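Hello,

Our lab assistant flagged a job as stuck in the queue for most of the afternoon. It eventually completed. Since we weren't sure the result was trustworthy after the delay, we are filing this so someone can double-check. Below is the sequence as submitted and the structure that was eventually returned. Let us know if re-running is recommended.
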Amino acid sequence: MTRTVLITGCSTGIGRQLAEAMHDKGYQVIATARDQTRLTPLNQRGITTLSLDVTRDDSILAARQEIEKLGLQVDILINNAGYGAMGPIVEMPVAEMEKQFATNVYGPVNMVRAFTPMMRQQAGGMIVNVGSVSGILVTPFSGAYCATKAALHALSDAMRMELAPFNIEVMTVMPGAIESEFGNSAEASLARTLPPDSLYQWAREGIRKRARASQANPTPTKEFVAALLSRIEARHPKAEVAIGNGSRTLPLLARVTPTRIRDWLLQRSFGLHNYSQGK
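-- returned structure --
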Protein backbone atom coordinates (compact mmCIF):
# COMPACT_ATOMS: atom_id res chain seq x y z
CA MET A 1 0.00 0.00 0.00
CA THR A 2 1.36 3.42 -1.00
CA ARG A 3 2.10 5.64 1.97
CA THR A 4 1.44 9.38 1.84
CA VAL A 5 4.07 11.75 3.18
CA LEU A 6 3.59 15.47 3.83
CA ILE A 7 6.81 17.51 3.87
CA THR A 8 7.11 21.18 4.84
CA GLY A 9 9.80 23.56 3.57
CA CYS A 10 10.32 22.03 0.12
CA SER A 11 11.29 25.12 -1.87
CA THR A 12 15.02 24.32 -1.65
CA GLY A 13 17.63 22.08 -0.06
CA ILE A 14 16.71 19.19 2.19
CA GLY A 15 12.95 19.48 1.71
CA ARG A 16 13.11 19.52 -2.06
CA GLN A 17 15.57 16.63 -2.35
CA LEU A 18 13.68 14.60 0.24
CA ALA A 19 10.45 15.08 -1.73
CA GLU A 20 12.19 13.90 -4.90
CA ALA A 21 13.80 10.90 -3.22
CA MET A 22 10.59 9.73 -1.58
CA HIS A 23 8.65 10.22 -4.83
CA ASP A 24 11.22 8.09 -6.65
CA LYS A 25 10.73 5.36 -4.05
CA GLY A 26 6.99 5.24 -4.66
CA TYR A 27 5.59 7.38 -1.86
CA GLN A 28 2.62 9.66 -2.49
CA VAL A 29 4.43 12.91 -1.71
CA ILE A 30 2.77 16.19 -0.80
CA ALA A 31 5.47 18.87 -0.99
CA THR A 32 4.71 22.25 0.56
CA ALA A 33 6.21 25.73 0.85
CA ARG A 34 4.94 29.23 1.47
CA ASP A 35 5.46 30.17 -2.18
CA GLN A 36 3.96 27.41 -4.28
CA THR A 37 5.55 28.76 -7.47
CA ARG A 38 8.94 27.62 -6.11
CA LEU A 39 7.60 24.07 -6.14
CA THR A 40 7.01 24.02 -9.90
CA PRO A 41 9.97 21.68 -10.61
CA LEU A 42 8.49 19.17 -8.16
CA ASN A 43 5.03 19.50 -9.64
CA GLN A 44 6.47 18.85 -13.08
CA ARG A 45 7.79 15.53 -11.78
CA GLY A 46 4.30 14.48 -10.75
CA ILE A 47 4.59 15.44 -7.09
CA THR A 48 1.55 17.01 -5.44
CA THR A 49 2.40 20.52 -4.26
CA LEU A 50 0.55 22.86 -1.92
CA SER A 51 1.02 26.35 -0.55
CA LEU A 52 1.57 26.13 3.20
CA ASP A 53 2.85 28.63 5.74
CA VAL A 54 3.40 26.76 9.00
CA THR A 55 3.19 30.03 10.98
CA ARG A 56 -0.45 30.59 9.98
CA ASP A 57 -3.33 28.52 11.32
CA ASP A 58 -5.54 29.36 8.33
CA SER A 59 -2.87 28.15 5.92
CA ILE A 60 -2.49 24.85 7.79
CA LEU A 61 -6.26 24.37 7.82
CA ALA A 62 -6.51 25.13 4.10
CA ALA A 63 -3.77 22.60 3.33
CA ARG A 64 -5.49 19.92 5.40
CA GLN A 65 -8.81 20.57 3.67
CA GLU A 66 -7.13 20.34 0.26
CA ILE A 67 -5.50 17.06 1.20
CA GLU A 68 -8.87 15.71 2.31
CA LYS A 69 -10.42 16.82 -1.00
CA LEU A 70 -7.73 14.83 -2.79
CA GLY A 71 -8.85 11.79 -0.84
CA LEU A 72 -5.47 11.41 0.85
CA GLN A 73 -4.57 10.45 4.41
CA VAL A 74 -1.18 11.56 5.74
CA ASP A 75 0.85 8.61 7.00
CA ILE A 76 4.13 10.46 7.56
CA LEU A 77 4.49 14.13 8.50
CA ILE A 78 7.96 15.61 8.11
CA ASN A 79 8.34 18.99 9.82
CA ASN A 80 11.30 20.27 7.86
CA ALA A 81 10.53 24.00 7.45
CA GLY A 82 12.92 26.11 9.48
CA TYR A 83 14.23 29.62 9.89
CA GLY A 84 17.36 30.98 11.53
CA ALA A 85 18.49 34.53 12.21
CA MET A 86 21.91 35.11 13.73
CA GLY A 87 23.05 37.87 16.05
CA PRO A 88 23.62 38.73 19.72
CA ILE A 89 20.63 38.05 21.98
CA VAL A 90 20.70 41.54 23.50
CA GLU A 91 20.29 43.11 20.05
CA MET A 92 18.01 40.53 18.41
CA PRO A 93 14.85 42.34 17.21
CA VAL A 94 11.75 40.95 18.87
CA ALA A 95 10.15 40.32 15.48
CA GLU A 96 13.12 38.18 14.39
CA MET A 97 13.02 36.13 17.57
CA GLU A 98 9.27 35.66 17.30
CA LYS A 99 9.59 34.57 13.67
CA GLN A 100 12.08 31.87 14.63
CA PHE A 101 9.83 30.51 17.36
CA ALA A 102 6.77 30.72 15.11
CA THR A 103 8.49 28.73 12.35
CA ASN A 104 10.65 26.30 14.31
CA VAL A 105 8.50 25.60 17.38
CA TYR A 106 4.85 26.60 17.04
CA GLY A 107 4.73 25.61 13.37
CA PRO A 108 5.65 21.93 13.91
CA VAL A 109 3.34 21.70 16.94
CA ASN A 110 0.41 23.13 15.00
CA MET A 111 1.11 20.77 12.10
CA VAL A 112 1.04 17.82 14.50
CA ARG A 113 -2.24 19.04 15.99
CA ALA A 114 -3.76 19.37 12.52
CA PHE A 115 -2.73 15.97 11.16
CA THR A 116 -2.75 13.71 14.23
CA PRO A 117 -6.52 13.08 13.81
CA MET A 118 -5.84 11.61 10.36
CA MET A 119 -3.23 9.28 11.78
CA ARG A 120 -5.53 8.21 14.60
CA GLN A 121 -8.26 7.36 12.09
CA GLN A 122 -5.91 5.01 10.27
CA ALA A 123 -4.51 3.56 13.50
CA GLY A 124 -1.00 4.94 13.26
CA GLY A 125 1.59 7.07 11.54
CA MET A 126 4.95 8.77 11.91
CA ILE A 127 5.99 12.32 12.72
CA VAL A 128 9.54 13.40 11.86
CA ASN A 129 10.67 16.65 13.48
CA VAL A 130 13.85 18.11 12.04
CA GLY A 131 15.75 19.64 14.93
CA SER A 132 19.45 20.46 14.95
CA VAL A 133 22.74 19.82 16.67
CA SER A 134 22.37 23.51 17.58
CA GLY A 135 19.66 22.49 20.01
CA ILE A 136 22.27 20.53 21.96
CA LEU A 137 25.43 22.65 21.69
CA VAL A 138 24.57 26.34 22.09
CA THR A 139 26.97 28.72 20.38
CA PRO A 140 27.40 32.49 20.57
CA PHE A 141 25.39 34.64 18.17
CA SER A 142 22.83 31.90 17.51
CA GLY A 143 21.06 31.83 20.86
CA ALA A 144 17.54 32.36 19.53
CA TYR A 145 17.90 29.68 16.87
CA CYS A 146 19.48 27.24 19.33
CA ALA A 147 16.64 27.89 21.77
CA THR A 148 14.00 27.03 19.16
CA LYS A 149 15.68 23.75 18.29
CA ALA A 150 16.14 22.82 21.95
CA ALA A 151 12.44 23.54 22.47
CA LEU A 152 11.52 21.38 19.48
CA HIS A 153 13.61 18.51 20.85
CA ALA A 154 11.80 18.74 24.21
CA LEU A 155 8.38 18.91 22.57
CA SER A 156 9.26 15.92 20.39
CA ASP A 157 10.19 13.94 23.50
CA ALA A 158 6.81 14.72 25.05
CA MET A 159 4.88 13.98 21.85
CA ARG A 160 6.71 10.67 21.41
CA MET A 161 5.40 9.48 24.77
CA GLU A 162 1.96 11.03 24.47
CA LEU A 163 1.24 9.72 20.96
CA ALA A 164 2.58 6.21 21.55
CA PRO A 165 -0.85 4.90 22.69
CA PHE A 166 -2.21 5.79 19.24
CA ASN A 167 0.59 3.95 17.42
CA ILE A 168 2.04 7.24 16.19
CA GLU A 169 5.84 7.27 16.20
CA VAL A 170 7.81 10.48 16.68
CA MET A 171 11.36 10.76 15.37
CA THR A 172 13.63 13.67 16.20
CA VAL A 173 16.31 14.32 13.58
CA MET A 174 19.38 16.25 14.71
CA PRO A 175 21.38 17.24 11.62
CA GLY A 176 24.91 18.53 11.80
CA ALA A 177 26.34 20.67 8.99
CA ILE A 178 24.28 19.89 5.89
CA GLU A 179 24.71 21.45 2.46
CA SER A 180 21.83 23.91 2.06
CA GLU A 181 20.86 27.56 1.66
CA PHE A 182 20.75 27.98 5.44
CA GLY A 183 24.18 29.64 5.64
CA ASN A 184 23.31 32.23 3.01
CA SER A 185 19.98 32.99 4.67
CA ALA A 186 21.60 33.21 8.11
CA GLU A 187 24.27 35.60 6.86
CA ALA A 188 21.66 37.71 5.08
CA SER A 189 19.75 37.98 8.37
CA LEU A 190 22.60 40.04 9.85
CA ALA A 191 21.40 43.04 7.87
CA ARG A 192 18.29 42.95 10.09
CA THR A 193 19.76 41.76 13.38
CA LEU A 194 23.09 43.59 13.64
CA PRO A 195 22.61 47.37 13.87
CA PRO A 196 25.31 49.79 12.62
CA ASP A 197 25.97 50.87 16.21
CA SER A 198 26.07 47.30 17.53
CA LEU A 199 27.85 46.63 20.81
CA TYR A 200 29.55 43.82 18.90
CA GLN A 201 31.04 45.70 15.96
CA TRP A 202 34.44 44.42 17.05
CA ALA A 203 33.16 40.84 16.73
CA ARG A 204 31.50 41.16 13.31
CA GLU A 205 33.75 38.56 11.72
CA GLY A 206 32.94 36.10 14.49
CA ILE A 207 29.23 36.72 13.98
CA ARG A 208 29.58 36.15 10.24
CA LYS A 209 31.57 33.01 10.95
CA ARG A 210 28.69 31.67 13.06
CA ALA A 211 26.20 32.51 10.33
CA ARG A 212 28.26 30.51 7.83
CA ALA A 213 29.13 27.67 10.25
CA SER A 214 26.56 25.23 8.88
CA GLN A 215 28.27 25.36 5.49
CA ALA A 216 31.77 24.63 6.77
CA ASN A 217 32.55 21.16 5.44
CA PRO A 218 28.87 20.20 5.14
CA THR A 219 27.50 16.76 4.40
CA PRO A 220 26.06 16.75 0.85
CA THR A 221 22.27 17.09 0.89
CA LYS A 222 21.80 13.96 -1.21
CA GLU A 223 23.81 11.93 1.31
CA PHE A 224 21.82 13.35 4.22
CA VAL A 225 18.50 12.60 2.50
CA ALA A 226 19.51 9.02 1.75
CA ALA A 227 20.51 8.47 5.38
CA LEU A 228 17.30 10.02 6.70
CA LEU A 229 15.14 7.95 4.37
CA SER A 230 16.85 4.76 5.54
CA ARG A 231 16.11 5.73 9.16
CA ILE A 232 12.47 6.44 8.39
CA GLU A 233 12.08 3.10 6.62
CA ALA A 234 13.84 1.08 9.34
CA ARG A 235 11.83 -1.78 10.77
CA HIS A 236 12.22 -0.27 14.22
CA PRO A 237 12.87 3.47 13.68
CA LYS A 238 14.98 5.18 16.33
CA ALA A 239 13.48 7.96 18.41
CA GLU A 240 16.51 10.21 17.85
CA VAL A 241 18.66 10.31 14.75
CA ALA A 242 21.95 12.20 14.29
CA ILE A 243 23.07 12.68 10.69
CA GLY A 244 25.79 14.78 9.11
CA ASN A 245 29.14 16.35 9.85
CA GLY A 246 29.42 17.27 13.54
CA SER A 247 26.14 15.63 14.50
CA ARG A 248 27.92 13.32 16.95
CA THR A 249 31.10 15.15 17.91
CA LEU A 250 29.42 18.45 18.84
CA PRO A 251 26.85 16.90 21.20
CA LEU A 252 29.70 14.91 22.75
CA LEU A 253 31.57 18.18 23.29
CA ALA A 254 28.48 19.61 24.98
CA ARG A 255 28.13 16.61 27.29
CA VAL A 256 31.67 15.90 28.42
CA THR A 257 33.44 19.27 28.36
CA PRO A 258 33.29 21.35 31.56
CA THR A 259 31.21 24.48 31.05
CA ARG A 260 34.09 26.91 31.58
CA ILE A 261 36.28 25.14 29.04
CA ARG A 262 33.42 24.83 26.55
CA ASP A 263 32.61 28.53 26.89
CA TRP A 264 36.27 29.44 26.44
CA LEU A 265 36.56 27.35 23.27
CA LEU A 266 33.40 28.78 21.73
CA GLN A 267 34.21 32.36 22.71
CA ARG A 268 37.58 32.06 21.00
CA SER A 269 36.09 30.33 17.99
CA PHE A 270 33.65 33.19 17.36
CA GLY A 271 35.84 36.16 18.27
CA LEU A 272 34.56 36.98 21.72
CA HIS A 273 38.09 36.98 23.14
CA ASN A 274 39.01 40.08 21.10
CA TYR A 275 37.05 42.67 23.05
CA SER A 276 40.12 44.54 24.28
CA GLN A 277 41.23 44.89 20.68
CA GLY A 278 37.85 46.34 19.77
CA LYS A 279 37.93 49.21 22.30
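-- support follow-up --
The delay was a queue issue, not a problem with the job. The result is valid. The chain has one domain: 4-278. The CA atoms of residues 151 and 213 lie 21 Å apart.
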